[in-house]
Amino acid sequence: MDAKILIESFAEFARSKNVDRPTMIRILEDVFRAMIRKKFETDENFDVTINADKGDLEIFRIREIVDDNSEDIWDFDKISFTEARKIEPDFEIGEEVYEKIELEEFGRRAVQMARQTLIQRIKDLEKDILYNKYEEQVGEIVSAEVYQILGREILLIDGDGNELILPKTEQISKDRFRKGDTVKAIVHRVDMNNGNPKIILSRTSPVFLERLFENEVPEVYDGLITIVKIVREPGERAKVAVESYDDRIDPVGACVGMKGSRIHAVVRELQNENIDVINYTENLDLYVTRALSPAKVSSITVDQDRKRISVFLKPDQVSLAIGKGGFNIKLASRLVGFEIDVFRELNEYDDEDVDLSEFVDEIDGWIIEELKKTGLDTAKSVLALTKEDLTRRTELEEETVDEIFRILRQEFDQ
């Protein structure tokens, strides 16, 4: 293979990978200089000129002519007067000899290895370009097409044919995709696995919800409305705290839109995730009240040292504060940064009801605490639930729930 064919084939391959001309020339020169170093031990006195467009390559070895008896005659950049005269009869001592080196002089094996090295360098460069491209897009929304559905992940292809990965853990539980579907997600992170970039997407990240708001709400995109914090149970419920520094803008109204037009687009993308948008405030009591919406809070007690908040509500508001599956109170706690305990107002207790604290000799204290965290602070409030509801709300074992029911029912049977 001569130099012209080698360079032209490499240049065509590089252009197909969208490699710019200066980078292409730099790679070619690096590879040819590596060949020179392998054959001549150094490339310091060699001049390499490449014209990738025409496939031209010129390699010149530059040496200074010295006297045959000179001590420097063995230096890599020196040539004896006698040897120089064999190249050109009229050379004189002190002049420089430019000796052209043909590619064939490196040997067929070296040229083939150079070709493989050039292709590998482009592939490595392509990986670096891909890594850097998506590293800069971490936290941004991308769209890609599903081309293979596996057990633990979905493989997608972007517009340039690059493979992206959407793991099962980063999918909304209600997501159902088929081959050929277009999927929206954020670039969650970019890993390097054995030299290959691995682009991980996410649809469960709070950042995904934030970017969707930016797409649907111009005031958020323009910075007129700030999203202070987002907490999510993907596919189930989310709470978004927003604020505006412009008194003329209602941040909640702007995010929801006329008749819910803006937020509906976000909800649809998130498989009907229930999204609560609330006004952020530094008034902790008010913030907690808003976070527990739609429940109406009667009173609040804050323990700053323990980072716990006790919230008292009327009996008919407790289930609203807890929410389906306990999601409302869990998200409210994460939003405000405090553990929230829900209690019925004491003056609303049924005279025949019994506070759970009375059962401390029969039910472990930690179990009673778990029950109280979800607003279940009396025997009748627990017995009003089904076994399935109590298991889902508290995440207690079924055997434990059966024992709790037995103990509480026994109290009223007596």
What does this structure look like?
Residues 139-204 form the S1 motif domain. It is found in: Cytoplasm. GO terms for molecular function: DNA-binding transcription factor activity; nucleotide binding; RNA binding. Participates in both transcription termination and antitermination. By secondary structure, the chain is α/β, with parallel strands linked by helices. Among the domains are: 3-132, 2-Layer Sandwich (N Utilization Substance Protein A, Chain:P, domain 4); 137-204, Nucleic acid-binding proteins (OB fold (Dihydrolipoamide Acetyltransferase, E2P), Beta Barrel). Helix content is 39%, strand content 25%. The protein contains 15 helices and 15 strands. It has helices spanning 3-16, 21-40, 81-87, 108-135, 206-216, 218-221, 251-256, 261-269, 284-291, 315-322, 327-336, 365-373, 379-383, 387-394, 398-413, and strands at residues 46-51, 56-66, 78-80, 96-101, 141-149, 153-157, 163-167, 182-193, 196-202, 225-233, 237-244, 274-279, 299-303, 308-313, 339-344. A hairpin with a 3-residue loop joins strand 10 (225-233) and strand 11 (237-244). Helix 9 runs antiparallel to helix 11. The chain is elongated. The N and C termini lie far apart (99 Å).
